[in-house]
Amino acid sequence: MKNYMNLENEKKFCRICLEEEEDDKDEELFSPCRCSGTSKYVHKECLNRWIEETTNERAKNQCMECRTEYIVRNDGEKETFFQDNLINTRKICVMFFIPTILLGSITFSLDKNLNMITMLDGGKIYRNTICQDYFYNYGNVVRNETVCNPNSVRDYVEYYPILGFDFYISFYSGFWALFLILFWYNMLKKQLKNKELFFQKYRNCKFVLHCLICLKYIFFYYIVRYDMPEVACSAALPNMILDFTNLSILHKNTKFTINEINIEITDKNIVLPWSEHYNANESGYNMIEITSDDED
Ligand SMILES: [Zn+2]
Ligand SMILES: [Zn+2]
Q1: Between residues 137 and 241, the one the model is more confident about
Q2: Using one digit for the tens of pLDDT, what is the confidence trace for 10-52?
Q3: Residues 278, 71: contact at Cβ < 8 Å?
Q4: Residue 43: nearest ligand to its CA?
Q5: How far is the CA of 266 from the centre of ligand 2 (A)?
Q6: Ligand 2 center to residue 35 CA distance, Å?
Q7: 116 closest CA partner among 180, 167, 177, 174
Q8: Which of 208, 192, 170 lies closest to 257 in space, CA to CA?
Q9: Which ligand has the shortest distance to the CA of 42?
Q10: Which of 24, 104, 192, 243 is least surrounded by Cβ atoms within 10 Å, i.e. has the fewest?
Q11: Contact assessment for residue 156 and residue 230, using Cβ atoms and an 8 Å cutoff
Q12: C-beta of residue 63 within 8 angstroms of C-beta of residue 177
């Protein structure tokens, strides 16, 4: 008879390879069945190898000592996210450019008093003129003339409606891209089967970075609005290209990460730690019911 009480205080060891648990070892010991004492613990790797190599069919899904059927999770749940959501670059193109251009055009048409510019300028109506001196020299006659032109974002937008469209579209480009990123994030969170694995590989900070890139035009606006107002009103195209690139990179990288996960997932069964009161709805413990016909 073994003394189990003493073993509780000793180091755990694997019942297959008989190695003791080491702190620096990646492989952790766990107990897959009701056994206690010397048979309590086993390495995941050792048990999986044993299950693969044994010719005894029964030993593949139950402990031959205590006859407990292992709780297994089928590891064959590959991600079908991109099969379920047939999103490709062309679709992103449509989902991004059309609403951006529509939103920009409609708000510009409706915003007759250019309230958005007033709001961006801190509630003030900012106008500015730029003056240049011209000297004319016709033989004996020398003339000196000063010409002043309006030079603020508001003036440009009022004077050239095309720049107004450009300005409003630049503005909505980032916001619409931000909306699409958050939508994408939400979809991944809801539909991925291996969420934890995905967000371990594709960390939230990467999503934050994608979101920050969307806000670039606001910073750009405040940098150039006084000195180069014409630049602030003609940035729609480069801005949209940047936002579209940002979205494409996010799409590509998430797809790459999901492919990586699918490569890692084999079609093996993984034996989970034994639990007397496992919840059939809890993730991981829901694949195989424990049958009682072997308990004689
Ligand atoms: Zn082992
Ligand atoms: Zn056992």
Answers
A1: 241
A2: 678 899 988 887 766 667 788 999 998 888 899 888 888 888 8
A3: yes
A4: 1
A5: 26
A6: 4
A7: 167
A8: 192
A9: 1
A10: 24
A11: yes
A12: no
Ligand 1 centroid–CA 22 distance in Å is 11
Q: How far is the CA of 12 from the centre of ligand 1 (A)?
A: 11
pLDDT digit string, tens, across residues 125-163: 888 888 888 888 877 788 888 888 888 899 999 989 999
Supply 84's token pair.
């379920």
Integer CA distances (angstroms), 187 to 56, 92, 206, 226, in order: 44, 15, 16, 41
